[in-house]
């Protein structure tokens, strides 16, 4: 069993597709841009919105920022609640905590919506640290998020208390650069759990093991190509690693 468990949110804890896609459509419609196919829209789930709008909709920097802001306009009021929690997640989190695990969230979603989702579904009680991006979508690089989440989990573990989230939010706003990570050092007591290759790549960049979840928005081929140490079909399998 690992000591530190880092979870992605969308596609790993929450089944967030309806809210995300509805808000993407809302932003594109407001901009008068054509809506991509359903297949392309689903690729927005996981990466940063800014990167997805620039790469999938071929807009420039300013347009991408405007689209992200428009997306948030609907998401922060309605979209974040158009979600559900995957079967097995609440019990798995409860079991991990009872076994003494320290648990964190490392998500490209901004911090405040993440906290609201966890609170709505009564999951906040299981997490020692929540690390998300800035409100405007910056600070969303998965390596940065995972490195900071692991750092804060260790600090919380050492101090026996949770770390104030505001400290992380301010730090991201001031410095969006990637941390220096000694990837040759393998953190044997930590694992990153996610549903896309970005979670796997980010975990490996931080020197930790990774788990790809098949019940989310990724697939086995994606995880195998990224080199995930484990590929699971249900949250309960985390208890057997």
TrEMBL record:
UniProt keyword annotations, A-Z: Hydrolase
Cellular component GO terms held in the UniProt record: cytosol
InterPro entries reported for this sequence: HAD-like_hydrolase_sf (IPR050155), HAD-like_sf (IPR036412), HAD_2 (IPR041492), HAD_sf (IPR023214), PGP-like_dom2 (IPR023198)
Domain of life from the UniProt record: Bacteria
Keyword Hydrolase: yes
One of the record's GO molecular function terms: hydrolase activity
Pfam families to which the protein is assigned, alphabetical: HAD_2, Hydrolase_like
PANTHER family for this protein: 5'-NUCLEOTIDASE, PHOSPHOGLYCOLATE PHOSPHATASE
Protein name: HAD hydrolase-like protein
Species in which this protein is naturally found: Coprococcus hominis (ex Liu et al. 2022)
């Amino acid at each position: 069993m690992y000591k530190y468990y880092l979870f992605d949110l969308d596609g790993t804890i929450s089944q967030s597709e309806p809210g995300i896609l509805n808000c993407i459509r809302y932003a594109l419609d407001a901009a008068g841009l054509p809506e991509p196919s359903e297949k392309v829209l689903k690729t927005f789930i996981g990466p940063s919105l800014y990167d997805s709008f620039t790469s999938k909709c071929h807009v420039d920097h300013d347009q991408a920022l405007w689209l992200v802001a428009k997306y948030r306009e609907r998401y922060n009021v309605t979209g974040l609640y158009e979600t559900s929690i995957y079967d097995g997640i609440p019990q798995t989190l409860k079991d991990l905590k009872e076994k003494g695990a320290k648990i964190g969230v490392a998500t490209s979603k901004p911090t405040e919506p993440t906290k609201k989702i966890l609170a709505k579904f009564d999951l906040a009680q299981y997490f020692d640290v929540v690390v998300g991006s800035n409100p405007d979508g910056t600070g969303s690089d998965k390596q940065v998020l995972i490195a900071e989440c692991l750092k804060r989990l260790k600090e919380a573990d050492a101090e026996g208390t949770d770390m104030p989230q505001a400290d992380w939010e301010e730090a991201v706003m001031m410095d969006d650069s990637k941390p220096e990570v000694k990837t040759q050092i393998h953190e044997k007591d930590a694992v990153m759990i996610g549903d896309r290759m970005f979670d796997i790549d980010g975990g490996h960049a931080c020197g930790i093991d990774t788990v790809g979840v098949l019940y989310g928005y990724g697939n086995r081929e994606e995880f195998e190509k990224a080199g995930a140490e484990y590929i699971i079909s249900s949250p309960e399998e985390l208890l057997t690693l």
